[in-house]
Amino acid sequence: MNKIYRVIWSYAKNAYVVVSELASKKRQSKSTNRTVVIKRSMVGIIILLLVANPGYPKIQTAAENTIKVSDSGKENGVTADEAKATNNGSIAIGGGADANGINEETYRATIAIGWYAKALLGGVSMGARADAGDESVALGFWTKAELEKSVALGARAEAKAGSSIVVGHKAIVNNIGGIAIGESSIVSGDNSISIGRLAESSGEKSLSIGANAKAKDIGAIAIGRNAEASSNSSISIGNETKSGRLGVSIGFNSESAENSVALGPNAKATSVNSTAIGISSVATSAGATALGKSASAQGENSVAIGHSSIANEANTVSFGKSDSERRLVNILKGRNDTDAVNVSQLKGVTQALGGGAEVKEDGSIKAPSYEVGGQKADNVGEALTNIDNNLKGVVEGGLKFAGDDADVKGGVKLGEVVNLKGGAEGKLTDKNIGVVADVDDAGVLKSLDVKLAEKIDLGETGSVTTGQTVVNNDGVKVGDKVVLNDQGLTLGNGAPSIMKNGINAGNKKITGVANGADDNDAVNMAQLKERDEKITNINTGKAGLVKLEGDKIVINNELAKDAPTFDFSNGGVARTLAGVTAGKVDTDAVNVSQLKGVTQALGGGAEVKEDGSIKAPSYEVGGQKADNVGEALTNIDNNLKGVVEGGLKFAGDDADVKGGVKLGEVVNLKGGAEGKLTDKNIGVVADVDDTGVLKSLDVKLAEKIDLGETGSVTTGQTVVNNDGVKVGDKVVLNDQGLTLGNGAPSITKNGINAGNKKITGVANGADDNDAVNMAQLKERDEKITNINTGKAGLVKLEGDKIVINNELAKDAPTFDFSNGEGTRTLAGVTAGKVDTDAVNVSQLKGVTDALGGGAEVNADGSIKAPSYEVGGQKADNVGEALTNIDNNLK
Fold first, then answer.
1. What would the pLDDT profile of 732-755 be if each residue is shown by its tens digit?
2. Residue 223, class by beta-carbon neighbours within 10 Å (0-12 exposed, 13-18 middle, 19+ buried)?
């Protein structure tokens, strides 16, 4: 029969001895060394082995303070070697068990329990073929912890590297500092952790938690069943998740590409630099962002914000989809061309239109109401038509005429013939009478003056008679004696005469002699005096010469001081005055470069032609051409209604325009999140190209997300919150450690629990080869915790950008950009194309330019009203101006 033994301390031998269970023992003193304490902890195990052993074990001591228990029988027909306990304080129990190692001074106990179990200095091996290295622990059949400071628990578990921990059947750690917990779990990267059946961490400093979880590259994290983090620093949390290089996937079946983020069940960020946040959200193009349940960002650099929003065009932001648009509220007045325009700015446009035009409460535009010529119109075009009709009345009113007596003698309709008669009879002559228009400074015609030509030609048979003087083809005759004909002038007998042959002065002075011109002309006394005077002026510096005074050229100085005209012509031929500096004051000459500035300001191809004349501009407004500014402005007025009605159009990542809104209507931006929201986790980035044109507003998740103490992330059966991580009902990771349920392995602050066998004393790792504890792992996890999957609904400030999210606001009709009571500028807004797109300031400037009259967008975003002057009356809106025109036409 079996013999019952017990092990007691022998003071005589200074060692444990096996005695009858009836023998008494004496308690040891408190000074007993730690080797004795270790041996006491093994008493129960030894007794159980002895009781269970049907043979007669051989128990003896070898070195000082050692125990070895050998079985002299056979196991499966194989004779076992004798147990060896060669160190001081060592224990070897089992056939072939070997507790070996040098232990002369350190007194580190070595324990080997089991058939051919082996343990080196300070090591503990328990189980058949278990093998423990220096200061290592191997528990289980064929379990190996061969290198120093390693732990292996479970059948065929292998800790192949130093400072590693292996828990589970066939679990393996190949690299230093690794931790593998779970059946067939594998660690192949330095300082990496695998927890769960078939979990694998093959990258350095990687982490995998969950059945078949894979962390395949440096710093990768995979948490959840079949979770896979395949690239450098990628993170996958949740069942069936996948992530690319530097990507983050959180939520069941979520997937992220390189540098991308997918948060929420079935969230997909499948292209580089993309973001998908929310249940079933999808971002499929580079730089795309989808925020909200089922949001879809399909266009490159597009943003879809809100439940089921679609952005399928590149560089667009969508806050909804067709028939599901949202309002965009609390927008600061746009100042730059690409800023969004708010309703207050649109009100500036309606005020400029006048006629009671306004933005109604529902955002639609109340049409203006003009009254022109007693007729009402609700738009500028119709008002202009009424003006045109009134012009017909003007035509019918025609013209009225008055002569020098100033009395109106009658009128005629425009287009009818008016006969002007002079009363002459007989043959008439041409080119002897002219009509001159007398216009005042304001350009108003005062009269049409009929004037006689300076040079009258009555032809060969014509004559002019006044009293006794007759002028005809023969010459001039005054009375009977004075005759001027083709021979000359005779004044009668003895009187002076001027004939072809010469001048007969009749011994009298020749007076009234004209200035001589040619060499043979007579010179009169005045010419002679003039020459004398010029000689004098040359001597005194008053001659009509070009003279240099300082840096100025003085022309025709003293003598020409009262001359109003400086004639550069050579006879009737004009000359070019070259080298003229650009004039600065009102009386300076203007050069062609300044004139070119005017033509450039006119635009429309206006220019100074090579011959110096001005090429008129050519404008095309609303499909109509105009060759002057006034006509172009008229065309702009006619097209103004289209601008107002066109409003704003919005598109999202799907790139299709889903709807529009008239100018003044409100677009709501919704995130779709419900419950309590958090701040500073989402930002909006303006994507502007090299020319300054806004491509999109990218809504991005913050690099560091903080959901606060009450926030959480749920993906399938996995919950991450302030308490820690919980998977199902049993697996819990918190500030105390990891527990896998009743009876399952656990790692806590108190140590590693592997079937009532504690692994204690794992301090915080400091060097690369140190093991890490759960507190350190928790520090890493805190960067990705506290996110409620698919329902983040956060607003986070990143620098000067606001990133906005998603699920909780999916049904909200309004997107509020305000900060309390203050508004913000929505910058980088591309010009809207469809009705629901936001309108930027450049589009609003197009409206103010069309209004003319100095209307403009002020620096603070408000609208400067136009100023028109019609018929001497000023107006600050189109309606008032049209009223003035109408009044003037009456």
1. 767 666 676 777 766 665 656 655
2. buried
